């Protein structure tokens, strides 16, 4: 009976995960989908707590107390962290939580390995052992990788590329495989020592894997690590013959992989390229086209006049908008312009900001209507009829080098073709290059004017200027 | 070969689950509008927090006098909870913004 109930809990869990994910993929049902999945998770957790142990549960009272303490601390910390985080820091937060899951999977593997060794079963040449080892490696890589990604997005860690980085990474990967084989076949030394060597190497690989990846590739990496953790969780599911862990883990593993590929496609880069080739970091300095020359600045009042007398204005939001938390004032600007019968649209590049959909979430927060947010394919043909393009803290996604400079690291990435518009006004804090560290020739074009300053401040001034007109 | 056949027959159910789940995951996500990529990633992130069940199992199987295992298990449950709770709350916050707009 107990077993049956537990199985029922797990079945509910698996079904809610699938339904939840499905609902998450439609704007109308997304919020409910998240709650459905959370509900299923709660059922599965409660079921495990009270129904898994087949003996007398009162024997395990100490264990249960500790589990509850961990659950309570985790719930409080998780809720507070998730509630307090700024919209701009969302990607880091996802990366952080992802790392926690990876670490959890790795710890499970460590305990189970100890367990295996304790039983004295010297025979490690079986699938249980392999699942444990694979879970350990993937979980560890995911944890360390996520921490590095978190540090990078948070600005604590800079891009660093070792000499021969690719060779080192491939070497490490080969070493991991060799170690697993050695442990399983019982060759050389004690498996326990090798196990901890494996842990160390996996950690190092996680760090080195993410370290050189920078720039626009970070969302891809987070998505990839996300699916890694899914696979690590599935390893746990295999280990315990636990269907809900298996479905949840594999579902995330495969969905995460597809999402990663979708993102790569949006940037016109192959996955191998992202993983093996360092972006940004050590690109050959001399190879890229020289960009430079004079740029011109535009005053606030000129900008206001120009925009007020336009027929059509397209706003291109980027990370700068997110950093400045300027989404509300941006919506304000849009409304003021609409009152002056200016047609205002937003051009959303798939990878603007730090994550796909980052700008959509941000602008949705400010109540910008859905139909004003146009995706790249829709808006690109419209630039030719646009009078003014206002770029708010975006850079790489409008860099023409992606189209016409084969030496540029972002060559081939589809961009917003803003240079087809009559005027381009770029709001940035300085002339510093964007996240990918590449100069942008757009800023030096004759039709481009620079409007320096913090996005929020500039937009506020612009709105009051427009209101005064 | 024998061991492979044996593995296949003993784990037939799990293999089925794995393969079907792979297709399900692909199917579910392929039709997602890019607007929802971030919340979806975050939601998927919360779902793989299901690994916490493994952590709870570790704790339940542990002998409470085995301090190292208890500490590791405790940590695992804590980290897993962070993943689950944090993941769902962050996703909910992101989606809150979509909903607010919808009701207008």
Largest sheet: spatial strand order of chain A = 1-7-6-5-2-3-4
How much beta of chain A, percentage-wise? 5-15%
Q: What percentage of the residues of chain B does DSSP assign to strands (E)?
A: under 5%
User: Major beta sheet of chain B, specifics?
Assistant: none
Order of helices and strands of chain B: HHHHH
Query: What quaternary form is this?
Result: heterodimer
> SS-based structural class of chain A?
alpha/beta
Q: Care to count the β-strands of chain B?
A: 0
> Radius of gyration of chain B from the CA trace?
19 Å
Largest sheet of chain A: 7 strands, parallel
- Average pLDDT figure of chain B: 84
Question: Helical amount among residues of chain B, as a percent range?
Answer: over 70%
Number of helices of chain A: 17
C-alpha geometry of chain A: elongated
Count of spatially separate domains of chain A? 2
Q: What sort of overall outline of chain B do the alpha carbons produce when their principal axes are compared?
A: flat
What percent of the residues of chain A sit in helical stretches (DSSP H or I)?
A: 55-70%
Order of helices and strands of chain A: HHHHHHHHHHEHEHHEHEHEHEEH
Q: Please report the total strand number of chain A as a whole number.
A: 7
């Amino acid at each position: 009976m107990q077993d049956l109930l537990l199985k029922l809990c797990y079945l509910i869990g698996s079904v809610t995960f699938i339904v939840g994910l499905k609902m998450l993929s439609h704007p109308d049902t997304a919020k409910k989908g998240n709650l459905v999945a959370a509900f299923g998770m709660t059922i599965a957790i409660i079921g495990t707590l009270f129904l898994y142990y087949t003996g007398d549960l009162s024997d395990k009272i100490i264990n249960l107390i500790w589990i509850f303490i961990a659950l309570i601390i985790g719930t409080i910390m998780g809720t507070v962290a998730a509630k307090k985080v700024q919209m701009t820091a969302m990607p880091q937060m996802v990366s952080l939580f992802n790392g926690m899951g990876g670490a959890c999977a790795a710890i499970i593997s460590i305990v189970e390995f100890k367990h295996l060794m304790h039983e004295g079963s010297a025979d490690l040449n079986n699938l249980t052992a392999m699942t444990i080892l694979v879970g350990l490696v993937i979980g560890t890589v995911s944890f360390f990788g996520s921490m590095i990604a978190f540090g990078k997005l948070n600005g604590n860690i800079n891009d660093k590329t070792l000499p021969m980085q690719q060779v080192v990474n491939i070497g490490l990967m080969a070493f991991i495989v060799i170690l697993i084989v050695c442990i399983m076949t019982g060759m050389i030394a004690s498996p326990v020592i090798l196990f901890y060597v494996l842990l160390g190497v996996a950690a190092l690989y996680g760090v080195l894997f993410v370290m050189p990846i920078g720039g626009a590739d970070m969302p891809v990496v987070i998505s990839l690590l996300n699916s890694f953790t899914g696979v690590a969780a599935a390893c746990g599911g295999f280990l315990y013959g636990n269907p809900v862990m298996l479905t949840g883990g594999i579902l995330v593993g495969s969905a995460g992989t597809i999402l990663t590929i979708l993102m790569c496609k949006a940037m016109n880069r192959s996955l191998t390229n992202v993983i093996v080739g360092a972006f940004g970091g050590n690109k050959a300095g001399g190879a890229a086209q020289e960009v430079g020359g004079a740029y011109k600045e535009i005053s606030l009042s000129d900008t206001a006049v120009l925009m007020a007398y336009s027929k059509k204005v397209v706003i291109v939001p980027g990370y700068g908008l997110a950093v400045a938390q300027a989404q509300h004032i941006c919506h304000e600007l849009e409304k003021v312009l609409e009152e002056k019968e200016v047609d205002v649209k937003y051009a959303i590049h798939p990878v603007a900001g730090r994550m796909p959909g980052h700008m959509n979430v941000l602008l949705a927060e400010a109540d910008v209507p859905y139909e004003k947010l146009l995706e790249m394919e829709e808006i690109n043909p419209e630039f030719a009829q646009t009078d003014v393009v206002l770029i708010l803290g975006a850079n790489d996604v409008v860099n023409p080098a992606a189209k016409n400079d084969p030496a540029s690291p972002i060559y081939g990435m589809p961009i917003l073709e803003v240079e087809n518009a009559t005027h381009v006004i770029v709001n940035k804090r300085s002339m510093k290059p964007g996240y990918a560290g590449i100069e942008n020739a757009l800023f030096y074009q004759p039709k481009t004017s620079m409007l320096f300053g913090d996005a929020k401040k500039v937009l506020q001034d612009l709105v009051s200027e427009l209101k005064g007109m | 070969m024998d061991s492979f056949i044996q593995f296949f027959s003993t784990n037939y159910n799990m293999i089925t689950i794995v393969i079907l789940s792979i297709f399900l995951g692909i199917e579910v996500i392929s039709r997602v509008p890019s607007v929802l990529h971030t919340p979806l990633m975050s939601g998927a992130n919360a779902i793989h927090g299901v690994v916490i069940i493994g952590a709870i199992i570790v704790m339940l199987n542990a002998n409470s006098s085995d301090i190292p295992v208890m500490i590791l298990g405790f940590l695992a449950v804590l980290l897993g909870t962070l993943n689950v709770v944090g993941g769902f709350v962050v996703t909910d916050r992101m989606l809150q913004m979509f909903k607010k707009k919808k009701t207008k």
